[in-house]
């Protein structure tokens, strides 16, 4: 039997555990990459099936945690009860440079801490007061975003009216983000909603808000880095590569980004987008509105980095193209030595992945650079266009699982017995208890950066230390053998 | 980070290029790549410092002078007054929300699957939070309600959710709590569960206790109480017997130290007391790695829980976490409840004496000896903590226990911040402080947050801060050394495995406190030819 058929049998077997309705719904989200198929054969971006233990989060997580949260010099108010802001406080490692509590606020938690009376009488007055208090205590903040939590949308508060009034009073942006957790099916709608608030509440006033650097003139090599959230500092090696090839980065949106960088963005010539899933909306808008093109790139692993650098350079003139080649060449020896060191230790190792926006496909070539093979992958909150892109990355016979449930993931792993699982914190210890090496692919397991050449070094070292960790051999007690 | 390969590498290995140390710019032709720079090394290099400096021109940033000026201002009394004037804004609160506590307590029962009814994002957060603290899996499911459920209610989601969860994960009990969404739209949990059973989505016999746990009421300790009460009332229904079963029940509350459950069991074992722990989640948060993932690790059996209604009495160690449960046990079970705080020396003494009096069993010799050792240890190091000014924060009971322990060592609590405070707690702890010569400087700041505490620590500095991992930002800003005791602790490993309870727990806590003070002293005296005159070998 071919792998494709094997995998299909495995899917059927795993689905047997579900009751009829659950089985029917879940069966559409599990598939196998087949030869010549232009997608992965799975449905996506549908409601999670209740009770199956999805790993997904909510719109609030996507808007506050992903898109707006990393804009470092604004205050992001978790508007509603205390929990959402508490659990997402400092959880995502979006690194930034700044004096926290004074001119930057990334690792702080601001909440309106709704009480029962706020639910009963509404929270708009409280919200207005909060924004005044923020102004008093954090005068250097560059504005506020209001991320509304579930109750706000259910009790009919008008946060837009408060935002308008307060923006006028303070002279700073106040952005209402309607990212209540029950909206949509995952984090993904939160990304979209947050993108839309940039479109509707920020960019129309970009010219008023923008503070240009002294003597600034727009240049032919101006670009933005979009959708790099600077996990463990990822965006910085990426920026360095862009700069080394002669481009000028006007804006990082949003990792280590500032509000001014958001409003600088329309001055660029090109949006370079890393996480397509979470930021394609604003890129498409800027293309339509300002005629700024956008280009997806992948900075995981030397093969893709070189490909992406050339692809980016091709948008510019020969100077840039020549410099891109120089950058690639300058890093070649170092990459060769990293691969020479780690590849023999990782050759032929198999990986199952399950992550969020772009990593389920983008990291595959980095594993390949190390001689590793991804045998299963899937997204928490991908859409059809993600799976279409994924088809170009995966081998035939790769198991594809969309919004995988805890049960499915465990069963697939038991059957396929990969050498490494790369997913999130909620999955990590499940698999480590199964003696399966694991790396967190959202937070880089507190390591990083993983982007760029320097990031690949850390990535290679981390995959090795996970798989070749000597404690795996200690799990079985000698007297049980 | 040390590369485990590099340790084995011959030191005389011939290479063409630099092998060790930071290398600015690409390296050509190195046979061995040498040092790999992690984020904590990489971004302090000149090339990245330059990148940051260059990036700043686009940031629209305030001048360095302005930032420094405002930073200084935030340390002032003037700022403190403004900070304490705020009425609506909360910044860096020391409290979570109800379902976290509900999931925490539910997971200690045999075969129990915690189930969060409402939006699905909440349960992802709860699982993540608990997992990060314990580095253990935490399994819970959600109804995954979306817009349509907001309009039509969550019944359809619950039916399907219960059915799927039951079939896939084969729980012996499903413990239901709610998210804000379900509460605001007014879902009727009792009716939903009944309907789900009647329509055959789950067996009639499956216990499904449920608790209303909106985030806009109380905090995680409230959710703990609501869920515990619901589990007990569900499982003990019609179980009241004529006679008591001779056992005692013990509840530790929202206590993140699973070592405490094990320490308590050891103490009860030494006494020879028959007991039921309500709920024993020590293995939930510290299960052995055998190479097989075991989903359910709650150690309190459903049978023992059902029988807990017939116990001689129930001991509680966190009275402000469990008011509703205690009230229920006293009224509905007509059972005696006891509140003790077996933390520090005096708290443990009091617990053991009363346990002995109630059971008629003498205090075991082993524990008497442990007491002597603990007191001996405290005495040996006391000079280093005497008169030290302390700031601390956390849940009411947690803070009370710590305060009591600090006072008996001669430390002086100064700022006591409890975001999820209540009036009874505040009057009890004020009495404790008033009655101790070391408590005279203390102020209890109920309903305040860690941004308030920052102002307090700048205007009235202290020697030591005790709190959870979020205290590290106060450590950074104010330079006050941090002892991590509380929940969550994300940035240090394995703290939860230790006991803070009993005499052994007193030694553990004391060890963390004293050695933090000594570490700090070393850090402050480590500059050669300058401060190292006091870099003492013997302390």
Key traits:
heterodimer, A: about 475 residues, alpha/beta, 6-stranded mixed beta sheet, 4-stranded parallel beta sheet, globular, B: about 550 residues, 5-stranded parallel beta sheet, about 45% helix, disordered N terminus
Secondary structure topology:
The complex is a heterodimer of chains A (481) and B (539).
Chain A: H1 3-15, H2 20-27, E1 30-32, H3 59-68, E2 75-79, H4 83-87, E3 110-111, H5 116-121, H6 124-137, E4 144-148, H7 150-155, H8 159-170, E5 174-177, H9 187-202, H10 206-209, E6 222-226, H11 235-244, E7 248-253, H12 259-264, E8 270-273, H13 276-290, E9 293-296, H14 302-313, H15 318-346, E10 350-353, H16 359-362, H17 364-369, E11 373-377, H18 384-391, E12 399-401, H19 406-416, E13 420-423, H20 425-433, E14 438-440, H21 452-467
Chain B: H1 39-42, H2 46-55, H3 64-73, H4 77-85, E1 90-91, H5 98-106, E2 112-117, H6 121-134, E3 141-142, H7 147-152, H8 155-169, E4 173-178, H9 180-185, H10 189-198, E5 210-211, H11 220-235, E6 248-251, H12 258-271, E7 275-277, H13 302-307, E8 313-316, H14 323-331, E9 336-339, H15 344-359, H16 365-381, E10 389-393, H17 396-409, E11 412-418, H18 423-434, E12 443-446, H19 450-459, E13 464-467, H20 471-478, E14 482-484, H21 502-524
Parallel strand pairs in B: 2-3, 2-4, 4-5, 6-7, 6-8, 8-9, 10-11, 10-13, 11-12, 13-14
Helix pairs in contact in B: 4-19, 5-11, 8-10, 11-14, 15-17, 15-21, 16-21, 17-18, 19-20
The 3D shape of chain A can be described as globular
Instruction: Briefly note the structural class of the backbone of chain A.
Output: alpha/beta
pLDDT < 50 runs, ≥5 residues of chain B: 1-30
- As a percent range, the share of helical residues of chain B equals 40-55%
The proportion of residues in beta strands of chain A is 5-15%
The average pLDDT value of chain B, as a whole number, equals 94
* Distance between the ends of chain B: 30 Å
Radius of gyration of chain B: 27 Å
């Amino acid at each position: 039997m071919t792998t494709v058929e094997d995998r299909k049998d495995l899917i059927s077997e795993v689905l047997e555990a579900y009751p009829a309705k659950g089985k029917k719904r879940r069966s559409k989200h599990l598939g196998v990459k087949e030869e010549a198929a232009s997608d992965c054969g799975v449905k996506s971006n549908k409601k999670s099936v209740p009770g199956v233990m999805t790993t997904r989060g909510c719109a609030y997580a996507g808007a506050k945690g992903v898109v707006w949260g990393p804009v470092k010099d604004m205050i992001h108010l978790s508007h509603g009860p205390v929990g959402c802001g508490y659990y997402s406080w400092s959880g995502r490692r979006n690194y930034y440079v700044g004096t926290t509590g004074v001119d930057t606020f990334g690792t702080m938690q601001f909440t309106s801490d709704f009480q029962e009376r706020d639910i009963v009488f509404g929270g708009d007055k409280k919200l207005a007061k909060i924004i005044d208090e923020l102004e008093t205590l954090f005068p250097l903040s560059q504005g506020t975003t209001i991320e509304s939590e579930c109750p706000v949308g259910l009790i009919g508060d008008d946060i837009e009216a408060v935002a308008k009034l307060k923006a006028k009073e303070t002279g700073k942006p106040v952005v209402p983000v309607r990212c209540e957790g029950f909206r949509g099916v995952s984090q993904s709608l939160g990304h979209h909603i947050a993108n839309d608030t940039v479109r509707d509440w920020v960019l129309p006033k970009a010219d008023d808000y923008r503070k240009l650097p002294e003597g600034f003139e727009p240049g032919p090599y101006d670009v933005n880095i979009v959708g790099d959230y600077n996990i463990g500092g990822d965006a910085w090696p990426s920026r360095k590569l862009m700069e080394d090839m002669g481009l000028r980065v006007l804006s990082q949106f949003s990792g280590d980004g500032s509000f001014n960088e958001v409003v600088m963005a329309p001055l660029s010539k090109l949006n370079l987008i890393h996480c397509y899933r979470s930021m394609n909306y604003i890129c498409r808008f800027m293309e339509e509105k300002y005629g700024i093109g956008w280009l997806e790139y992948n900075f995981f692993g030397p093969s893709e980095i070189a490909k992406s650098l050339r692809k980016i350079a091709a948008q510019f003139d020969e100077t840039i193209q020549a410099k891109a080649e120089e950058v690639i060449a300058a890093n070649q020896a170092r990459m060769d030595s990293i691969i020479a060191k780690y590849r023999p230790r990782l050759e032929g190792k198999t990986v199952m992945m399950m992550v969020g926006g772009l990593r389920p496909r983008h990291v595959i070539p980095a594993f390949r650079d190390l001689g590793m093979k991804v045998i299963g992958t899937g997204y928490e909150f991908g859409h059809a266009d993600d799976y279409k892109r994924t088809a170009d990355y995966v081998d035939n016979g790769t198991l594809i699982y969309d919004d995988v449930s805890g049960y499915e993931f465990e069963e697939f792993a038991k059957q396929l017995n990969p050498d490494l699982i790369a997913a999130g914190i909620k999955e990590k210890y499940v698999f480590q208890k199964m003696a399966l090496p694991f790396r967190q692919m959202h937070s880089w397991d507190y390591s990083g950066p993983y982007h760029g050449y320097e990031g690949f070094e850390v990535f290679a070292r981390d995959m090795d230390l996970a798989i070749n960790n000597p404690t795996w051999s200690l799990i079985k007690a000698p007297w049980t053998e | 980070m040390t590369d485990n390969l590099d340790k084995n590498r011959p030191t005389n290995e011939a290479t063409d290029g630099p092998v060790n140390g930071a290398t600015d710019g690409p390296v050509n032709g190195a046979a061995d790549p040498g040092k790999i720079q992690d984020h904590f090394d990489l971004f302090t290099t000149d090339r990245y410092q330059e990148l940051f400096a260059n990036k700043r021109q686009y940031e629209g940033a305030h001048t360095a002078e302005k930032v420094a000026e405002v930073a200084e201002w935030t340390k002032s009394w003037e700022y403190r007054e403004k900070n304490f004037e705020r009425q609506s804004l909360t910044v860096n609160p020391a409290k979570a929300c109800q379902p976290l506590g509900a999931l925490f307590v539910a997971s200690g029962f045999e075969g129990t699957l915690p189930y969060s009814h409402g939006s699905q994002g909440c349960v992802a957060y709860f699982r993540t939070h608990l997992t990060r603290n314990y580095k253990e899996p935490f399994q819970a499911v959600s109804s995954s309600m979306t817009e349509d459920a907001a309009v039509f209610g969550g019944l359809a989601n619950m039916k399907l959710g219960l059915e799927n969860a039951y079939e896939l994960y084969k729980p012996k009990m499903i413990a239901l709590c709610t998210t804000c969404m379900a509460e605001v739209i007014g879902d009727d949990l009792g009716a939903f569960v009944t309907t789900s059973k009647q329509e055959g989505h789950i067996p009639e016999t499956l216990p499904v206790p449920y608790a209303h746990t909106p985030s806009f009421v109380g905090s995680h300790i409230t959710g703990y109480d609501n869920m515990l009460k619901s589990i007990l009332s569900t499982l003990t229904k019609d179980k009241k017997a004529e006679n008591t079963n001779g056992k005692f029940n013990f509840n530790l509350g929202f206590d993140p130290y699973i070592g405490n459950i094990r320490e308590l069991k050891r103490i009860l074992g030494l006494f020879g007391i028959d007991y039921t722990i309500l709920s024993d989640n020590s293995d939930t948060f510290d299960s052995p790695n055998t190479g097989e993932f075991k989903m359910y690790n709650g150690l309190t059996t459903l049978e023992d829980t059902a029988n807990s209604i017939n116990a001689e009495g129930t001991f509680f160690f966190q009275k402000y976490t469990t008011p509703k449960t205690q009230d229920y046990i006293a009224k509905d079970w007509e059972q005696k409840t006891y509140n003790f705080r077996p933390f520090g020396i005096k708290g443990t003494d009091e617990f053991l004496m009363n346990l002995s009096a109630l059971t008629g069993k003498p205090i075991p010799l082993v524990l008497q000896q442990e007491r002597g050792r603990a007191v001996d240890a405290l005495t040996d190091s006391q000079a280093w903590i005497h008169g030290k000014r302390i700031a601390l924060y956390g849940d009411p009971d947690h803070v009370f226990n710590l305060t009591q322990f600090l006072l008996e060592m001669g430390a002086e609590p100064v700022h006591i911040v409890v975001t999820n405070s209540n009036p009874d707690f505040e009057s009890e702890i004020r009495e404790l402080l008033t009655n101790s010569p070391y408590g005279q400087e203390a102020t209890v700041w109920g309903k305040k947050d860690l941004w308030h505490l920052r102002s307090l620590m700048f205007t009235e500095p202290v020697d030591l801060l005790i709190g959870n991992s979020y205290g590290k930002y106060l450590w950074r800003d104010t330079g006050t050394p941090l002892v991590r005791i509380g929940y969550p602790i994300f940035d240090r490993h394995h703290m939860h495995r230790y006991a803070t309870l009993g005499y052994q727990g007193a030694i553990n806590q004391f060890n963390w406190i004293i050695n933090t003070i000594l570490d700090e002293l070393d850090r402050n005296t480590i500059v050669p030819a300058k401060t190292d005159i006091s870099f003492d070998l013997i302390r």
